[in-house]
Amino acid sequence: MKKLVFLTNDDGYQSKGLLAIRQELLKAGYEVITVTPDRNMSGASHSLTFTRPLKIVELEKNFYYIADGTPADCVHLGLNIILNGRKPDLLVSGINTGPNIGNDVFYSGTVGAAREGTLFDIPSVAFSVGSSKNPNYQEIAQVAMKIINVVILQGLPKGVFLNVNIPTIPKNQIKGFLLTKQGRSAYKEEIVKYLSPSKEEYYWIGGEEALLEECQPGTDYTAIKEGFVSITPIKLDLTDYQAIDELDKKDFLSEIMRI
């Protein structure tokens, strides 16, 4: 029986990265169910839509988009409605049109979709490119397939998903694969102010694709900069257990009760 892969992204159903990895998955013999937003939903993080109804639109067999939906909506509706509870062997999110390294993991819809899949106990991987400048998505998808095939074979630890960034260099120049830790920051923050004809002020939040972090060993940023594929395991449990012990030693709760 064919292995079932659930494919989603945050860039919409026309994304070149999505179409490239979908083609490679089908070529490899996987059954692929694709459910995406209807447009670019970058920055949607792990948000679910509770304030309006959502519509599922079928583009072709096994290929759907969610009108006005987030990446996490796509996973939620795809698993519960389209697949009707049938559990995929793997969830793939991406390939994102830019990097998701450092603090990006808190904002990224690509990462949010993988996190949502992990909440459903599905092995999940988020794929992104190291730069949005002229990526060769076909080659990047071929590199991603190496990781996909191993995860299908071995699975992942419970409550853990992978955030993968692939450098935008020729495939034969990639130095290898590294297990990395999350870096600190990814972009130079930028807020642009606009003035409407009626003199109302508007703001556009963005940022240059200018990596700021120093080359700390073992981070996603450093791996990409040095020509390696970065594979960062991320867990659902965000609890800082060391901080619990440290706060307890400082009688943190006793001080709260005393004040």
TrEMBL record:
Residues involved in a divalent metal cation binding: 10-11, 42, 96
Superkingdom of origin: Bacteria
Its EC number(s): 3.1.3.5
Claim: Manganese is one of the keywords in the record: no
Intracellular or extracellular location(s): Cytoplasm
Record-level Gene Ontology MF annotations: 3'-nucleotidase activity; 5'-nucleotidase activity; exopolyphosphatase activity; metal ion binding; nucleotide binding
Binding note for cofactor: Binds 1 divalent metal cation per subunit.
Function: Nucleotidase that shows phosphatase activity on nucleoside 5'-monophosphates.
Protein name: 5'-nucleotidase SurE
Biological source species: Sulfurihydrogenibium azorense (strain DSM 15241 / OCM 825 / Az-Fu1)
